[in-house]
Amino acid sequence: MKTARWDLAAVWALRVLTYSVVASVVYIIGHIVWHGLPAMHWEFVSGFPRRSGAEGGILPAIVGTGCLVLGTITLALPLGMACAIFLSEYAAQGRFTRLIRLSIVTLAGIPSIVFGLFGLGLFVIFLGFGASILSGSLTLACMVLPVIIVASEEALRAVPASLREGSLALGASQWQTIARNVLPYAVPGMITGSILAIGRAAGETAPILFTAAAFFLPRLPQSIYDQIMALPYHLYILATQHPDAAAVRDEQYGTALVLLLLVLGVNLAAILLRYHFRKKYRW
To answer: Does domain 40-280 have CATH number 1.10.579.10?
Structure first.
């Protein structure tokens, strides 16, 4: 009887915590949407900023954020998946491999500001790329790479060993086994975890603060070596550093809403890709 009461109390405690988290998320999203919708008009999303962002639109910030996300995907996704495949399928499972995994997990927990300083020292100054799309994308790629490796390796481990053993028993090579019997079933989890990590990177301010972003650049980038505007940094300046922050309240919430929609769009893409591959491949 006493055990049943404790079980019931635990269930209700977990239920209250779950509902509290959901309610908090709904409130935050609703607050941003309620205050951001008045700023959402065509000129705001397609125009160029004027008067240090107090007027005009945020098109350069949208394009700049898109360039950073695309660059991060191009650099981090193939490298992260390749590293995960090597660690899971090829590397000898010894002390050195465990040390590498521990290092990757540790890197995944490092604050983003540290990656920003790392990108400043390596890409901006040492390699001479300057504050640019290339420096920002490389820095964000370094930041999300550990998360992509961990997520991809977990997806590979979830594939039953019998699929590998059966393929090898029939005479297939190790790469043929991985390409035809492992990856098709692991790809949904690999892509989902990777894109979610990149969606988080799209909202980061600290890494691009030192490597890519400028507050007021009323033009679109022409090459990967150009400095850009970005939605997270633009929002940060409007909310904290703008000389007339109270007058740009609508711009603040409008920028936050656009950034929220961008991140939700990336997450939705991950969900749709996962659904597509899971529907196509089942075991």
So the answer is: no
